[in-house]
Design brief:
Layout lengths: L1 E2 L9 H31 L1 H4 L6 H32 L2 H20 L4 H4 L2 H30 L6 H27 L3 H8 L1 H5 L1 H12 L6 H8 L7 H8 L1 H32 L4 H29 L1 H26 L2 H28 L7 H18 L1 H9 L5 H4 L1 H18 L13 E2 L3
Antiparallel strand pairs: 1-2
Length: 444
């Protein structure tokens, strides 16, 4: 048995809207910073920081550094989760935003390998680790602020706006990079790629102004007033919710692989394998991401009405079913229009069915006093296994020369099956945490 907080916190619709907006804007800025690195890994870093490799090998090295940021995400989730469950959700959102912005601007100022030698890729990885640490703490705080400020029947939609910040950040990063990618190659590699990173400073200031105007979560306030904060939230989360943490990790695999397939790896696949124009492929990513900003809340709102399980599992099945058709038709056509249509299906339609309900599903699996720590740990470890290594694995499989349609779909199908199993059990009766009139609940 474990104690819980009272079941009827006071909600303010006006403050809920302000919190949701603040979470969306702040998370958009965070993911803008994070995705700039992924885009630059595919188009710039292989040349400037990992010279001496072939085009594909240099990209693999750059994606390896990209993956390093994911390794820091669980650490960020644990540290921010610890203080988020003890001190409060709001303050952690301020620190994560500042940390991410500082690291991103620093990357924009980095000298290249030609200027300082091996120190350049070392510093690149260091700042990427700081980015990962910051975004690892961002997600849990933004989700919980939105969810805990909202009534039960609207929590799927509320949490989804944090999720929508991810493609919104992707769109901004892609547009910013695309604008300067049109420069002559020499100018782009010399200074053009740096400008989107430096612009992060402006976006961070905007995000901070908005976040400073919100108040703390009512559910956390009740935990704090009742003196029920955990002394070691991460350990208590593991002790009280061990199975839920594992199920959250498994639930992340397909959504993250799906996203990084169409948001990052597609830049390599489209330009190197299909021989398509770099600017055109960037435009595809931007359009698909922009559409997904709207389809994520739609999918989450649907989950409020018919349940998280039906929506999430449908997405996992469709992702597996789409794996072979996507690569077969693109390998056969090498057409920018075919790539555009198939990418819109994958990123703007299939991915939201999984990613939209995810935030609230995870929040509902943990009790308030350890919710930041438990949800963040599951999400960030899942991010490593699903997203951190996805571009690296996909690019390495592509480098075998056996053909994308041969080597890539099995990987996508396997992660879809694993996610289906995890979500199936995560949404069974008894997995969701519910406060009771006696303020106690048995929960694995």
């Amino acid at each position: 048995m474990m104690s819980s907080v009272p079941a009827a916190p006071a909600y303010s619709p006006a403050m809920a809207r302000r919190v949701i907006f603040a979470s969306f804007i702040g998370t958009t800025v965070e993911w803008y910073d994070f995705f700039l690195y992924g885009t630059a890994s595919a188009l710039v870093f292989n040349t400037l920081f990992f010279p001496g490799f072939s085009s594909l090998a240099g990209t693999i090295a750059a994606f390896g550094a990209f993956a390093a940021g994911f390794l820091a995400r669980p650490i960020g989730g644990i540290v921010f989760g610890h203080f988020g469950d003890k001190v409060g959700r709001k303050s952690m959102l301020i620190y994560s935003l500042v940390g991410m912005g500082a690291a991103t601007v620093a990357i924009g100022l980095l000298p290249s390998y030609a200027q300082v030698g091996v120190l350049a890729p070392i510093l690149l990885v260091v700042f990427r680790l700081i980015q990962g640490f910051a975004v690892g703490g961002e997600w849990g705080g933004a989700v919980l602020m939105s969810v805990e400020h909202s009534p039960e029947n609207k929590r799927g939609l509320a949490g989804s706006w944090t999720q929508a910040g991810s493609p919104a950040g992707l769109v901004l990063a892609t547009i910013a990079f695309g604008a300067f990618a049109s420069l002559p190659q020499e100018q782009f590699l010399s200074w053009g790629w740096r400008i989107p990173f430096l612009l992060s400073a402006v976006l961070v200031i905007v995000g901070l102004v908005i976040r400073l105007r919100i108040i703390e979560s009512p559910e956390f306030q009740e935990v704090k007033e009742a003196g029920k904060q955990s002394k070691l939230p991460i350990l208590d989360a593991i002790r009280k919710h061990p199975l839920n943490i594992l199920l959250a990790i498994g639930s992340c695999l397909a959504p993250f692989v799906n996203f990084y397939l169409f948001a990052t790896f597609i830049l390599t696949y489209g330009t190197v394998t299909l021989g398509l124009d770099r600017g055109a492929v960037l435009a595809i990513v931007a359009v698909a991401g922009a559409i997904e900003v709207g389809t994520i809340p739609l999918a989450a709102s649907l989950s409020d009405r018919i349940g998280r399980r039906k929506v999430f599992l449908t997405g996992a099945v469709l992702f597996a079913a789409f794996a072979y058709p996507f690569f077969i038709i693109n390998d056969a056509n090498h057409s920018i229009w075919v790539l555009a249509i198939s990418s819109l299906i994958g990123l703007s339609i299939i991915h939201p069915l999984m990613y939209g309900p995810m935030a609230t599903l995870f929040a509902e699996m943990f009790s308030p006093e350890v919710r930041y720590s438990g949800a963040s740990l599951g999400y960030q470890v899942g991010a490593i296994l699903g997203g951190g290594f996805a571009p690296l694995i996909l690019t390495s499989l592509l480098a075998t020369g056996l053909g994308a349609a041969t080597v890539l779909p099995p990987y996508l199908i396997v992660v879809s099956i694993l996610t289906f199993i995890a979500v199936f059990f995560a949404t069974r009766p008894g997995r969701k945490w519910v406060a009771t009139p006696t303020e106690s609940k048995t929960h694995a």
